[in-house]
Amino acid sequence: MSTVRRLMVVAGFAVTFVAILAGTAFAAGDGLGVVDQRTGEWYLRDPATGETTRFYYGDPGDVPFVGDWDCDGVDTPGLYRRSDGYVYLRNANTQGVADVKFFFGNPGDVPLAGDFDGDGCDTVSIWRPSEARVYVINRLGSADAGLGAAEFSFLLGNPGDEPFVGDFDGDGVDSVGVYRPSEQVAYLSDRLAEGPASRRVAIGDRGDLAIAGTFGPGADAVAVFRPGTGVFHLPGGVEVQYGSSHVAPLAGWFGALPGGDEPPAPPPPYPDVGSGKRIIYSNSQQRIWLIDENERLVDTYLVSGRKGIPLNGTYSVFSKSVQAYAPYGGITMKHMVRFVRPGTFGNKWSYGFHAIPRYPNGRPMQTEDELGTFRSGGCVRQADAKAAWLFEWADLGTTVHAIP
Ligand SMILES: [Ca+2]
Ligand SMILES: [Ca+2]
Ligand SMILES: [Ca+2]
């Protein structure tokens, strides 16, 4: 993961690609990658051409990382499988079995791939969150054997931090930094020892994942990946959309890649919640999204509900009525689609989606322009035409996700 050898291959040009949202990426720097943690699919992006190379490696749930295990200058996949405590390393960016496999660490450990002695070979060390301690190991295990004791260890960061590895001072030796999501600050250290951080970098936003890599001329730097948008935020204001909310981000020098594959899918145009035919209701946005069984967005529009009602969770449509009656004032609601049963969280009445309620004289209780604001006692009001359409579209049993 060190900088020096990678910059031998400076191409010296920069091209703007469709996936780059802002800024100009450093074409001779690290490639970006993502691993879909639901499928074990790897997507590696060539920084010079923008082309994607895709292959399967590992199982869903494995912790992916990259490093140069055979000291040839090219970073390739590694996995830490928490279920069996094994590290699986591969020396090519292609589909296939592990070249090196060994037993390692404790289930909660975070693998740290890097060249911690400057010999040009990456090894797998760990950060143990429960102790906030780095254990450095400058050799790889082999032949299914255990790795043995660490060479040395030191305290770093706090439980809850996200560690990353890079050569932040460009001396050819990797060190470890931590990203503290609660403060949105990265603390970089150039020494493999306890002590104050060498640098403090304000970066990212809540929920971001930190990575380090060679993103410009000079030493390694820290960057973040934002799962909600699938955007890498790199130094210099460069933003690259690559992947979505189910991926783990990577950066490395991947060498010559064949390319020719589709890039990972961007996040869907709706909150990435649930699967199958469903309705997603965001209480804070006062908006619903209708998604069909093929993951296509059928419709999205503003509604008027009640703040905090229903509680966030998963519900399903259990009853429908063309005409429904409020329990007071002679108020009527057309096209009621009920999804919260009485007593679910102490509620007396059921709640559902329906048209704008009418007083007995036929006057609507709000205008359609007022949709998007909290107006109701618990149900979710829609424009009349939308309510009629939803009534037909939503079958009994259709899932409803209530989200913040
Ligand atoms: Ca290699
Ligand atoms: Ca090394
Ligand atoms: Ca260094």
What structural class do helix, strand and pairing data support? mainly beta
Average pLDDT score: 91
What's the number of helices? Answer: 1
What percent of the residues sit in helical stretches (DSSP H or I)? Answer: under 10%
CATH architecture name of the largest domain: 6 Propeller
Percentage of residues in strands: 35-45%
**Spatial ordering of strands, largest sheet:** 1-20-19-18-17
The rough form would be described as elongated
Brief overview:
The chain has 404 residues and is mainly β.
Topology:
Elements: E1 20-22, E2 31-36, E3 41-45, E4 52-56, E5 63-67, E6 76-81, E7 86-89, E8 100-103, E9 110-114, E10 123-128, E11 133-136, E12 152-155, E13 162-166, E14 175-180, E15 185-188, E16 199-202, E17 209-213, E18 221-226, E19 231-234, E20 238-241, E21 247-252, E22 278-282, E23 287-291, E24 297-302, E25 313-316, E26 319-325, E27 332-340, E28 351-355, E29 380-382, H1 384-393, E30 399-403
Parallel strand pairs: 22-30, 28-29
Antiparallel strand pairs: 1-20, 2-3, 2-21, 3-4, 5-6, 6-7, 7-8, 9-10, 10-11, 11-12, 13-14, 14-15, 15-16, 17-18, 18-19, 19-20, 22-23, 23-24, 25-30, 26-27, 27-28
Key terms for this structure?
binds calcium ion; 2 domains; 37% strand; five-stranded mixed β-sheet; Neuraminidase; 404 residues; L,D-transpeptidase catalytic domain-like; mainly beta
